[in-house]
Amino acid sequence: MEEEKKLQNFENSPVKKEKPTFERKSSELPGEEKLEVDNIDDMTRTRSDTVTKPRHESIMSKTIQTTYEDLESRRESYSHLKDVDFKDHFNNCTNVYRKTYVTAKAKNKYGFVKDITFEEQVSRLTEAEEDEKEGKPRSALQNKKLSEKETNLQNIRLSKWMKMLEVYPDEVHPKLKSRARKGIPDYYRATAWRVLTCVKRLQEENESLDYFRIIKVKGEKKEIDTIFKDVTRTFSKHSFFEEKYGFGQKTLFNVLKAISLVHKDTGYIQGMNSIVGILLMYMNEENSFWTMLSLLIKYNHKKYFLPGLPGLFESFYIFMKLMKKVLPKSYKHMKDKGIKPSMFATQWFVTLFTSGFDPEVTVRIYDSFFTEGPKILYRVALWIMKDNESKYLGKDLDDFLQVLFATPKGLDPDKLMDGSVKIKITRQQIIDLEEEYKTKPDDEVMEIVQA
Amino acid sequence: MEKKKNKKVFLKVVIIGDSGVGKTSLIHRYTSTRFLQDFKPTIGAEFSNKEVVINGKTVVAQIWDTAGQERYQSLGISFYRGADCCGIVFDRSDHSSFENLDTWKNAFLKHGAPKEEGTFPFLVIGNKSDLDDGSLVKERDAQQWCADNGNLEYIETSAKDNTSVEEAFTKLIEKGMEREKVNLVELPDRMSQKNKTVNLQRDVAKDVNRKPQKKKCC
Signal sequence: where (chain B) (predicted)? Predict the structure, then answer.
């Protein structure tokens, strides 16, 4: 009952209506704060919201304070320290700054609350105390001041990106692809993703669609229930989504609800939640909505969510055909052992490597995906297989899957991108295979692909 | 000599039920003895295994965690085939997930097509028992449903409080072993694993004869 009430409140009180424009007052929404960047005054800024702080940055800069209750609630993670009295520990630690320091470091670069052991916390505390004694208290948030050289480099990259996307998509800069593969600068990602996905055009084509009106429409109960359930279990360790029914979860709820109302072909399907989750880490809810919509329509990502999951099986087919060519040993092994891509790769394609992967890896894949389309998905998938080939060849189903399920943890994004782009496949190959799948699919591969 | 000691039995356990009833949490609790904090909806299916000794036999339970949302069922059903036992989970605080037990059981029998439709080992699991505010699905009602559906066994669990989780899986595995008793050929470690995989392949092969159908939901 109480849940229901909460749900109603949730639905009926959308986040404060704002004029839907690109220009946004800073500080109203975290993640869209304007950022002062030195040395680019002379640049013509054609897009008013060019440089924005990703959400994890703005959250990082707020004072984060942990209470002993927080620790208590995570006691399970410290099961080996059953007898430690957290309350005692925190009472002894009177200095607020120190507490902040300790907990701030418990969040990683992308805003995720890291599992750190109790010992680690204590050792960090000691570190901080020592620094203090030595008279050089380090910044509570460890916001490293960039050196002049680093600032310049950052600005150069920013200006390159701004120039490149000024004319996009009318003119595609020859270096766009290779630069996207290196990663879009974090502060510029929100804008770049929006430009690359042609959100503006989509908005022009659907002028009557007003996001802030949509989220006031009452949704269908069953769908709303599903969304509601998933909202509390999307990046629940990220500082933005952590708070139950907090601002982060509310915006996620709004966007997913709007998608389910507008995109009737699919409605809300699980998997969308994690993609929108990543978008929300960079953009406000309205922009996330449009970007997601563009992804579904312009990038035809909806094919992964349609009844019967046609896109997924097509991707599996293409993936296995490419495997046969690029990694014949792995292909044969999978065929012989009866291992199907649906046993491990479903979430790779459906969520664009979001679910289960670290966000620092995911955003890099998004950068390339938005620039060059689905080819990168096959490349990454093949690279993961290639990188693990020595570990799983000769293994049976159990061990084979264990190897692959263990990969997403701690993947180095640079290594992944560098490796992936070296996988030799072409756009034309994918187009041909799509056609082949539709017209006369290879029976042998179909056997492996079919559910 | 060594080899003889390492007799292992491989069992395929499939866990099904509505979205958000706690399938992943239960499995995670069982295989890693911790409550999953960073949980997310399961897309497609996930796999984990656990080695346990039951009645003096080493059993490797291959546990398939399936997606609860309807759209992903067309994928889930491929994991039903060759299952030795099946746990149907519902959320005791969500009555509609209890009402859907029928649908899940029927879908499993239809797509998993086990030989013994009437006696296939199911275990009905009522999860989230920790949320007791008086409005939970009553044990009596659940027992009644189980009785009406071929005398299935019922157990109440809480993945959060770790109540009866181990018990539930042990029961499931025991049931699976019971069923397999006749067919099980005990082989040394490697061999039996190989054997298992061949089995799986045979299942796949069985299906291949069907025309590559255009994918429809379920």
Answer: none
Q: Are A23 and A49 in contact (CB under 8 A)?
A: yes
Q: Is residue A148 part of a domain?
A: no
CATH of the domain at A35: 1.10.8.270
Which among B45, B79, B193 has the least Cβ separation from residue A396? Answer: B193
Residues of A in contact with B49 (CB under 8 A): 398, 402
CA angle B10, B12, B17 (to 5 degrees): 155
B212/A441 CB distance under 8 A: yes
- A291 and A317 together in one domain: no
Q: How far is A396 from chain B (nearest CA, A)?
A: 7
Number of domains in chain A: 3
Q: Let me know: does A451 contact A342? Beta carbons within 8 Å.
A: yes
From the list A274, A310, A338, which residue is nearest B215 (CB)?
A310
**B45 with A343: Cβ contact below 8 A:** yes
Do A335 and A438 fall within a single domain? Answer: yes
Last residue of a domain, one of A302, A329, A351: A302
- Report the share of chain B in percent with pLDDT over 90: 56
- Least Cα separation, residue B25 to chain A (angstroms): 12
Residue-wise pLDDT tens digits, A215-248 = 999 889 989 999 999 999 998 888 788 888 888 8
R_g over Cα of chain B:
17
Interface contact A342-B69, CB threshold 8 A: no
Question: In this structure, are A321 and A432 located in the same domain?
Answer: yes
Single residue among A302, A318, A334 that ends a domain in this structure? A302
CA–CA separation, A176 vs A13, rounded Å?
41
Length of chain B: 218
Strand ranges in B44-147 using DSSP code E only, listed in sequence order: 45-54, 57-66, 85-91, 122-127
A317 and A437 in a single domain? The answer is: yes
Asked if omega into A310 is within 30° of 0 (cis), the reply is: no
- If asked whether residues A297 and A335 sit together in one domain, one would say no
- Chain B residues lying within 8 Å of A270, measured CB to CB: 19, 41, 43, 67, 69, 71-72
In a domain, A153, yes or no: no
Specify if A141 maps to a domain: no
CA distance B39 to chain A (A): 6
Residues A365 and A291 in one domain: no
- State which residue of chain A sits closest to B12, comparing Cα positions: A398
| Same domain, residue pair A349 and A441 | yes
Residues A285 and A204 in one domain: yes
Asked if B63 contacts B49 with a C-beta cutoff of 8 angstroms, the reply is yes
CA-based diameter of chain B, in Å? 57
Residue with tokens 């039920």: B17
Are A77 and B62 in contact (CB < 8 Å)?
Answer: no
What's the mean per-residue pLDDT of chain A? 78
Please indicate whether, in this complex, the C-beta atoms of B47 and A274 are within 8 angstroms of each other.
Answer: no
pLDDT tens column, A22-81: 333 333 333 333 333 333 333 333 344 456 666 665 544 333 445 555 555 555 554 444
User: CB–CB of A309 and B201 under 8 A?
Assistant: no
Confidence of residue A157 (pLDDT cuts 50, 70, 90): confident
Nearest to A309 among B35, B201, B215 (CB): B215
Structural domain boundaries enclosing A19: 2-42+197-302
